[in-house]
Amino acid sequence: MGLGNGNGDNLTAAFIDRVAVIRIEGRGSFKISPPMKQFIHKVMDERSADRVVIDMSDCAGMDSTFMGVVAGLACVIKSKPSFSFKLINLSDKNRKLLVTLGVDRVVDYSMSSTDEERDLMTGEQTGEQTLEPDFANKLNAAKTTLEAHETLVDINPANYNKFKAVLEFLQDDVRSLSEE
């Protein structure tokens, strides 16, 4: 499957026809959010696929950063009619997490996969890669985390009180890292 980074959260991406398939093993977390976001933006910029499918079969859970990044990507992609983005094979636990923060309102998802998606998953893959977190780039990680939480508040103002302290901490973090 590609080498893990030892912490159990692993992200691999491959192209099958015109579909970018991302698989998450372990948790969808703040660690793997920046490389996932960069990869999907690159796919959109280079038009190397028409669809992004995130396979959540092996995803044990998600943190708020990951959900905020997914929500942000979903909102960007909605403005590009030629492009689609979907989470598939969501567990009930992960679906409930999306609902808790209101991410289910903006993200296309399903608890299973269609026959077409199943065929896709077993199709001929090209360019499989493990998307490694760049731990050296603390500013990028802090900005990604801050933007993710701002997105969660944008899509559901009720999230503001949940994340007020986190937002303040992250704003300070981004500010101090920018000055380094």
Précis, in short:
The chain is 47% helix and 20% strand.
Explain this structure:
It is a single chain. The model is unreliable at 1-6 (pLDDT under 50). The chain is of the alpha/beta class. The protein has a domain at 10-133: STAS domain (Transcription Regulator spoIIAA), CATH 3.30.750.24. The protein has helices at 33-46, 64-78, 92-101, 115-121, 138-155, 159-179, and strands at 10-16, 19-28, 51-55, 59-62, 84-88, 126-130. It is globular, with a radius of gyration of 16 Å.
Name some characteristics of this structure:
single chain; 180 residues; alpha/beta; Transcription Regulator spoIIAA; six-stranded mixed beta sheet; 6 helices; disordered N terminus
CATH class of the domain at 10-133: Alpha Beta
Distance between the termini: 38 Å
**Beta-sheet strand percentage?**
15-25%
Approximate shape = globular
Q: Mind telling me the CATH superfamily name of the domain at 10-133?
A: STAS domain
Low-pLDDT segments, ≥5 res:
1-6
Question: Which structural class do the helices and strands define?
Answer: alpha/beta
In round numbers, the mean pLDDT is: 91
Which value, in Å, is the CA radius of gyration? 16 Å
Continuous helix count? 6
Oligomer: single chain
Q: Count the beta strands.
A: 6
Largest sheet: 6 strands, mixed
Q: Secondary-structure element sequence?
A: EEHEEHEHHEHH
CATH fold label of the domain at 10-133:
Transcription Regulator spoIIAA
The helicity comes to: 40-55%
CATH architecture heading of the domain at 10-133:
2-Layer Sandwich
